Amino acid sequence: MDLIEKTREFVASFLEGEPSSHDMSHINRVESLCLEIRKEEGGDPLVLQLAALLHDVGIIKEHEEGGDHAVYSADIASEFLSKAGLAKELIEAVTGCIRTHRFSAGESPETLEARILQDADRLDALGAVGIFRAVFSMGALRMLKHATGIDKGSSKRTVYIEDPIEGFNEYMQYKPFTIPEKLNTDTAKKLAEERLKIMRLYLKTLNLETGIDESGL
Q1: Are 183 and 119 in contact (CB under 8 A)?
Q2: Are 195 and 126 in contact (CB under 8 A)?
Q3: CB neighbourhood size of 83 (10 A)
Q4: CATH classification of 3-210 is 1.10.10.10, yes or no?
Q5: What share of the chain is helix, strand, coil (3-state, %, to 5)?
Q6: Alpha carbons 93 and 47: distance in angstroms, whole number
Q7: Residue 40 Cα distances to 65, 67, 204, angstroms
């Protein structure tokens, strides 16, 4: 088994039972988006694949302990890749991508690979899959709070609003519709605009059906 498949297997074991939307399907989509963006923008494919596969491996620890899953993921990735015998420079390149990928952290990626990973992760919050992930994640986090009392502080402004449709509307303004201005590569910006067309149409239809005022959209 080569390193990529060993890494995929390792990450899958960590994310088994992941209750929100940072599961292996997300990981696999981010990996594919990284490689798609690389076709136009360049970048080291090994660094990109390893960073994409490992970028959310610390999410369960964040659910359990709080903190920042990007930091946890980088630490877990460093230990895993060290045991796999990778060179220090390669490990640092991968973990550097992981540490700066998170949307809410507002980190500025320093390398091309880090910029591509950040873009790919953000693109997966857009389009039809972005709508699915948002609704699924909001439901999962609300249930997590109901069952355990644990809430995700960074999500309070949208997840825990009493009316979930109102919360979804606020989420759309806070995250998806602000993503294009935060993307790093021209390739990602083009992909984002296509995906946002779907989201705008969905939100318009949702609000028509529910009678929500769209004047602020």
Answers
A1: yes
A2: yes
A3: 9
A4: no
A5: 75, 0, 25
A6: 7
A7: 39, 35, 33
**Which of 196, 174, 185, 13 minimizes the C-alpha distance to 111?**
185
Residue ranges covered by each domain of the chain: 3-210
Which DSSP helix (H) or strand (E) runs through 122?
A: helix 112-123
pLDDT confidence of residue 119: 97
Position 216 scores a pLDDT of: 46
Whether 154 has a pLDDT exceeding 70, the answer reads no
Which tokens hold the place of 19?
Answer: 């209750």
Q: Residue 160: its pLDDT value, please?
A: 57
Count CB atoms within 10 A of the CB of residue 188: 26
Are residues 19 and 144 in contact, defined by beta-carbon separation less than 8 angstroms? yes
Q: How far apart are the first and last CA of the chain?
A: 49
> What's the CA gap between 208 and 101, in Å, rounded?
35
pLDDT at position 66 is: 78
20, 127, 190, 200 from 172: Cα distances, Å: 17, 11, 19, 9
Cα distances (Å, whole numbers) of residue 44 to 114, 116, 189: 10, 10, 20
What three-state secondary structure class fits 10? Answer: helix
One-letter amino acid for residue 164 of the chain: P
Is 84:4 a contact under the CB 8 Å cutoff? no
The rounded distance, in Å, linking the Cα atoms of 199 and 190 is 15
